[in-house]
């Protein structure tokens, strides 16, 4: 007999809002908030689907976090999610923004959710973006659905209510995610109501963060593990690795949870931590997702156990190391720890999940190092390999293709490799398509990898 998960005491008062209720938020920001030495409750909204919100709400926002070590699991019930809402619950969304009690808004909507164009601005050429801007201009309470539009709708509600300053905290794997979100929000605000821009500058701070905790999609095995170990029938547990990092920079004029008491680090600048994480961890993840899946590997652990894939990872890390503004010892320790994290025997982190939206991820994970290398006159084999493997992936080899830009990328693959390669590379960064040496190297690597 198993018991359902319900609260026996009141939830903490809602003082924070989250957009993008999913696995990572529950393993990371909600975990830090749960452990922080104060009493902040979060109202969390899904990005799109309603199911997780419904399931969590039926458990009063409670869920089990499984901290999965190589030699066993720990089970802890997280209490910081006071309310869980479906994306469509737009009136509730606006209501929280209008509440002076709410001081912080965290965001995890994936790289694709920022709706950026190639220059990092809001992609107003997309019909759905233009339609949502028009809807908000006509009615500030219109039920918009994209992340930028929902955030601007929230900002309009807050200004109407004169509810005071707050901080938005993006927690997606984007370089300088604060500036990235601020640019998109500024563009959306300007398009909807130019008078919002000054208010935004005065009342809203956007923090920049480096976030790290490998959290695969939950499975039925996780649910059974909770039931067996605790006797509780938790319908939405989430399993994560023991390692966790959160580095934040920025102002919190309205206050924030005491996340530092739970291990978060407040720093003047996240750049060195972010480069280290996005290039070494996420860059290697993308390499394995495309090149490893070409070799039939399906998880990170499987791929890194393959000596050839592992040598590719090491080669990529050697390429990145000179560009990191950190002591060599730190980088060496980080690399050693990463190999252990990747090889985790009880975490099945699917390469297919990581492969999704490469058009949004490679510009953050691979391209910055590649451009630095090219500026120094080098043509790094490791970066060439990732791009060639991604090219093959887009053509249908290895992990399945799921990319927000797929409709525009697929036609670029038509025709001879010598024509297609520059077009596909230019889709990641304009300078890459014009780099004839790089195009030639990627083309020959496509042939080499494709024939393996
Ligand atoms: N899972 C990890 O290991 C991990 C670690 C570090 C950072 N992150 C960041 O967190 C993000 C979410 O990861 P997750 O594991 O929680 O995924 P998830 O699929 O469990 O949850 C994603 C959430 O984002 C929403 N979303 C997805 N696409 C969206 C879009 N286009 N617009 C608006 N909302 C959208 C979904 O509705 C859902 O609420 C990642 O993309 C990454 O940027 C994840
Ligand atoms: O979550 P995504 O889709 O941005 O990327 C997949 C993984 O590379 C990523 O989730 C890592 O596991 C994570 O960034 C580790 O902290």
From TrEMBL:
One of its GO terms (molecular function) is mannitol-1-phosphate 5-dehydrogenase activity. Signal peptide: none annotated. Keywords: Oxidoreductase. It comes from the Bacteria. Residues 15-260 form the Mannitol dehydrogenase N-terminal domain. It catalyses: D-mannitol 1-phosphate + NAD(+) = beta-D-fructose 6-phosphate + NADH + H(+). This is Fructuronate reductase. Residues 269-397 form the Mannitol dehydrogenase C-terminal domain. InterPro entries: 6-PGluconate_DH-like_C_sf, 6PGD_dom2, Mannitol_DH, Mannitol_DH/Oxidoreductase, Mannitol_DH_C, Mannitol_DH_N, NAD(P)-bd_dom_sf. The keyword Lyase does not apply. Pfam families: Mannitol_dh (PF01232), Mannitol_dh_C (PF08125). Gene3D superfamilies: N-(1-d-carboxylethyl)-l-norvaline Dehydrogenase, domain 2, NAD(P)-binding Rossmann-like Domain. It comes from Blastococcus mobilis.
């Amino acid at each position: 007999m198993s018991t359902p998960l319900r609260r026996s005491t009141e939830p903490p008062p809602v003082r924070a809002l989250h957009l993008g209720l999913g696995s990572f938020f529950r393993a990371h920001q909600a975990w830090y908030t749960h452990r922080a030495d104060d009493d902040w409750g979060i109202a969390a909204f899904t990005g799109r689907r309603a199911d997780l919100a419904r399931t969590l709400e039926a458990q009063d926002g409670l869920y089990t976090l499984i901290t999965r070590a190589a030699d066993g699991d720990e089970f802890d019930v997280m209490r910081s999610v006071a309310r869980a809402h479906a994306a469509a619950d737009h009136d509730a969304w606006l209501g929280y923004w209008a509440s002076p009690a709410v001081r912080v808004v965290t965001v995890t909507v994936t790289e694709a959710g920022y709706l950026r164009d190639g220059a990092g601005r809001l992609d107003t050429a997309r019909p759905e973006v233009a339609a949502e801007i028009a809807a908000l201009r006509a009615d500030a309470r219109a039920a918009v659905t994209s992340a930028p539009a929902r955030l601007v709708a929230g900002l309009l509600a807050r200004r109407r209510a004169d509810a005071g300053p707050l901080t938005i905290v993006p927690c997606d794997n984007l370089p300088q995610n604060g500036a990235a979100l601020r640019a998109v929000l500024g563009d959306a605000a300007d398009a909807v109501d130019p008078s919002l821009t000054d208010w935004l500058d005065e009342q809203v701070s956007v923090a920049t963060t480096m976030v790290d905790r490998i959290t695969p999609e939950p499975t039925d095995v996780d649910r059974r593990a909770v039931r067996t170990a605790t006797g509780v029938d938790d319908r939405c547990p989430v399993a994560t690795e023991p390692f966790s990092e959160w580095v934040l920079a920025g102002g919190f004029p309205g206050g924030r949870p005491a996340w530092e008491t739970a291990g978060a680090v407040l720093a003047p600048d996240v750049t060195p931590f972010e480069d280290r994480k996005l290039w070494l961890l996420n860059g290697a993840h993308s390499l394995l997702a495309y090149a490893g899946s070409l070799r039939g590997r399906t998880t990170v652990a499987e791929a890194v156990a393959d000596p050839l894939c592992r040598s590719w990872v090491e080669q990529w890390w050697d390429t990145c190391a000179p560009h990191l503004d950190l002591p060599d010892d730190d980088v060496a320790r980080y690399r050693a720890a990463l190999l252990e994290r990747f090889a985790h025997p009880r975490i099945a982190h699917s390469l297919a999940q990581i492969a999704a939206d490469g058009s949004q991820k490679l510009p953050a994970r691979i391209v910055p190092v590649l451009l630095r290398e090219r500026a120094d006159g080098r043509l790094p084999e490791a970066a060439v390999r990732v791009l060639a493997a991604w090219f093959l992936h887009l053509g249908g080899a290895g992990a399945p293709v799921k990319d927000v830009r797929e409709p525009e990328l697929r036609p670029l693959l038509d025709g001879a490799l010598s024509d297609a390669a520059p077009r596909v590379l230019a889709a990641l960064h304009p300078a890459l398509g014009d780099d004839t040496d790089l195009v030639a190297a990627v083309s020959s690597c496509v042939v080499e990898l494709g024939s393996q």
